[in-house]
Amino acid sequence: RAKSAGGNRYELxxxxxxxxxxxxxxxxxxxxxxxxxxxxxxxxxxxxxxGDGSVRGAEALVxxxxxxxxxxxxxxxxxLAEHTGLIVPLGRWVLExxxxxxxxxxxxxxxxxxxxxxxNLSPKQLTHPGxxxxxxxxxxxxxxxxxxxxxxxxxxxxxxxxxxxxxPLRRLSEMGVDIALDxxxxxxxxxxxxxxxxxxxxxxxxxxxxxxxxxxxxxxxLKIVEGIVSLAHSLDLxxxxxxxxxxxxxxxxxxxxxxxxxxxxxxxPGPPDRLHELALADATG
Length: 285
Ligand code: C2E
Ligand code: MG
Ligand code: MG
Ligand code: MG
Known about the structure:
By secondary structure, the protein is α/β, with parallel strands linked by helices. It has helices at about 15-35, 75-85, 85-110, 125, 130-140, 155-160, 165-175, 205-210, 220-235, 245-255, 270-285; strands spanning about 40-50, 55-65, 70, 115-120, 150-155, 180-185, 200-205, 240, 260.
């Protein structure tokens, strides 16, 4: 940035930006050893059926217990891991660990109906040639049926996707793995384009739910959600909503025809046993 000031003029360094850069650099270089040392862990946030309020599964959300900085959220380090390529082994670990966890829930929950597991995939994982074989391998070794796994890909990762990029997703989809379009509504994808994508779940971004925070909800927001839901359903896509924070939102989203919800109203992301308890309470209560 100093360079772009041009000529012989120098800008004073911004100490805060420096601190951020050092931290970023420090975090980036610490990532590989962190993976070796097992500093990452996964929290699970329930996915709740809006019709009957039952817990149907969970989304796996990775965290880093950094020895100096404490717990770091994925927004702090996923972009760095994506940049260096470490996201490939890290993402593989997240997949393996959360699939293993899903098997534990299923064993403990025979009567509660199969609990599903959603795992986020980053763009670099999508283009990695091992994606399909690693996933098949992890599923086979764990014994989890492919239909219990949902891979979440952001809308922006698939914008302008060509057939080469879609091929591995299509393979996984043909095996029975669900593919969700994450953060839907934040990108600029052509709605008609949805037909081309091997996707069977739309995850409506939190920004839509936020628009419903005020009472009465913004009628334009409601119309948009209603339109997206009816388009999604006409294309045989299920709709999950993110960021549900109040009962009023949940009720409104249910009325608008959304299928599944996720958010603080139900539960914050938490340890695996917490999901087990929630699913169990739900099955017996
Ligand atoms: P995402 O996949 O859209 O995940 C939902 C995010 O919304 C999570 O943030 C979750 O904690 C947060 N959230 C859930 N309910 C509420 C709510 O009611 N209100 C509010 N304000 N927030 C809510 P988190 O855990 O910080 O994750 C951020 C993003 O990091 C995720 O967004 C996902 O894109 C990425 N991410 C997380 N884990 C992984 C991973 O294992 N691999 C990859 N590639 N990305 C990951
Ligand atoms: Mg997600
Ligand atoms: Mg999301
Ligand atoms: Mg989101």
